C-alpha cells in the first residue's frame, strides 16, 4: 500500500508525527513500568514538598537508576498536577542612600577555586499575617551553601551583623576572604565593617542598582520564596523561624539538587571539591585594569577603598593573587 511514498510523505499526508510513528513500531511500555515511573515521580515530588520541577525530578529518577525522558516526566507531572508553585514578584529592600564608605566591586573580577573565597550577602522581607519580618543571608559563592542567616522584625545593621557572626562561627574563614553585598546601609555600618576588618575579610559592593552582581544570593531568595514561603502559612515569627531552619539547613544545604552545581546539593558539592585542609592554601584570582598598579591592588587587601566600580573590562588585564 505504501507504493513509492516515503515514510516522511505518508506521515505528512496522514498528519502523523514521525517520531510517534516510529515509536509505535516498537514494543509498548508495560503497564507495570508506567505505574512504577508515575509512583516514583509522585514520591520524589512529595518528598521535596513540590519544590522540584521536572528537570530535578528527572535527575533524581536517573540517580535511582530509572532512564526516563524529561518530556515524559513533565507530562506526568502536568497530568497529576504536580508542577511547582510559580514565584511572585520580587520587592527590593536595599537602602543605599547614605554617606558611608562604598567599596570596590571585587566579586565580578574573581575566579573561584574553592570554598570560603567569596561570600555574598543580601536581605529580603517576608510578610506574615500581622507584620513584615526580615531575613539576612550569607552564601558561599563557590558552593552556593547558606553559611549564615538571621531572622528579625527590625531591618537594622544588627540583623546583618548576627548573620555574619554565625557564618564566621560555622566556617572560621582565613584572612583574604572577599565579602560581597549591595550598597545597603546595613553592610556599610561601622559595626559590620569593623568585624570584617578585624578578621582580614575584604569588603566588596555591587554597582548602583545592579542586582546581577549578587546573582547567586538573589537566586537563592527566589528559590526560598517559591519553594517554602509561598507554599506555607506561618502562625508567627517563631513558627517561620522553625520552617526556615528546616528548609535552609536540612533541606537546601543538604539535599536539594542545584542545577549550577551539576545537580549536586551544596554540601555534596563541597565534599566532592577541594578538601577543607587544602582549601585555605588555594587562592582566587582578581583581575584589574592595566592602569591599576600593584601598590593599588595591595592596598585593597587592607581597609578597602571608597571608589566606584569601573566599566566592563578591556581586552588586556592584569592578575593579582590574594
Mean model confidence by pLDDT: 78
- Tally the structural domains: 2
The total count of strands amounts to: 8
Poorly predicted tracts of residues? 87-98, 277-282, 288-322
Please report the number of helical segments: 13
| CATH fold call of the largest domain | Nucleotidyltransferase, domain 5
Side-by-side strand order of the widest sheet:
4-3-2-5-6
Specify the CATH class of the largest domain: Alpha Beta
Query: What Rg do the Cα atoms give?
Result: 25 Å
CATH superfamily of the largest domain: Ribonuclease H-like superfamily/Ribonuclease H
User: What proportion of the residues is helical, as a percent range?
Assistant: 25-40%
H and E string? HHHHHEEEEHEHHEHHHHEHE
Principal-axis shape equals elongated
Strand content: 5-15%
Counting helices, strands and paired strands, the structural category is: alpha/beta
- Report, as a whole number of angstroms, the end-to-end distance: 75 Å
CATH architecture of the largest domain: 2-Layer Sandwich
The main β sheet shows up as: 5 strands, mixed
Defining traits:
322 residues; disordered C terminus; 2 domains; 13 helices; Nucleotidyltransferase, domain 5; alpha/beta
Structure description:
The protein is built from 13 helices and 8 strands. A 5-stranded mixed β-sheet has the order 4-3-2-5-6, sandwiched between helices. Strands 1-7-8 form a 3-stranded antiparallel β-sheet, with no helix packed on it. The longest helix is centred in the N-terminal third of the chain and has 17 residues. It starts with 6 loop residues before the first helix and ends with a strand. 29% of the residues are buried. A hairpin with a 4-residue loop joins β3 and β4. It is 40% helix and 14% strand. It is of the alpha/beta class. It folds into 2 domains: 73 residues; 215 residues, Nucleotidyltransferase, domain 5 (2-Layer Sandwich), CATH 3.30.420.10. The C terminus is likely disordered.
Amino acid at each position: 500500500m505504501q507504493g513509492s511514498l516515503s515514510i516522511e510523505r505518508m506521515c505528512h499526508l496522514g498528519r502523523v508525527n514521525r517520531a510517534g510513528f516510529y515509536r509505535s513500531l516498537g514494543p509498548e511500555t508495560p503497564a507495570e513500568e508506567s505505574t512504577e515511573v508515575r509512583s516514583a515521580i509522585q514520591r520524589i515530588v512529595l518528598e521535596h514538598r513540590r519544590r522540584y520541577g521536572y528537570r530535578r525530578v528527572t535527575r533524581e529518577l536517573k540517580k535511582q537508576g530509572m532512564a526516563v525522558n524529561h518530556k515524559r516526566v513533565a507530562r506526568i507531572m502536568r497530568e497529576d498536577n504536580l508542577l511547582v508553585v510559580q514565584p511572585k514578584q520580587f520587592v527590593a529592600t536595599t537602602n543605599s542612600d547614605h554617606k558611608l564608605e562604598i567599596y570596590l566591586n571585587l566579586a565580578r573580577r574573581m575566579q573561584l577555586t574553592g570554598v570560603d573565597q567569596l561570600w555574598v550577602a543580601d536581605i529580603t522581607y517576608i510578610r506574615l499575617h500581622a507584620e513584615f519580618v526580615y531575613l539576612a543571608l550569607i552564601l558561599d559563592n563557590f558552593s552556593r551553601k547558606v553559611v549564615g542567616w538571621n531572622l528579625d522584625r527590625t531591618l537594622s545593621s544588627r540583623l546583618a551583623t548576627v548573620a555574619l557572626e554565625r557564618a564566621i562561627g560555622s566556617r572560621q574563614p582565613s584572612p583574604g576572604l572577599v565579602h560581597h553585598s549591595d550598597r545597603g546601609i546595613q553592610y556599610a555600618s561601622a559595626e559590620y565593617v569593623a568585624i570584617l576588618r578585624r578578621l582580614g575579610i575584604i569588603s566588596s559592593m555591587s554597582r548602583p542598582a545592579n542586582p546581577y552582581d549578587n546573582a547567586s544570593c538573589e537566586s537563592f531568595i527566589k528559590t526560598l520564596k517559591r519553594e517554602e514561603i509561598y507554599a506555607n502559612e506561618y502562625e508567627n515569627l517563631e513558627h517561620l523561624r522553625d520552617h526556615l531552619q528546616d528548609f535552609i539547613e536540612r533541606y537546601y544545604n543538604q539535599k536539594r539538587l542545584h542545577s549550577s552545581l551539576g545537580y549536586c546539593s551544596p554540601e555534596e558539592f563541597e565534599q566532592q571539591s577541594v578538601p577543607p585542609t587544602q582549601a585555605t592554601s588555594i587562592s582566587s584570582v582578581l583581575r584589574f585594569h592595566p592602569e591599576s598598579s600593584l601598590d593599588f591592588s595591595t592596598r585593597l587587601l587592607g581597609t578597602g577603598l571608597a571608589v566606584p566600580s569601573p566599566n566592563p573590562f578591556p581586552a588586556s588585564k592584569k592578575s593579582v593573587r590574594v
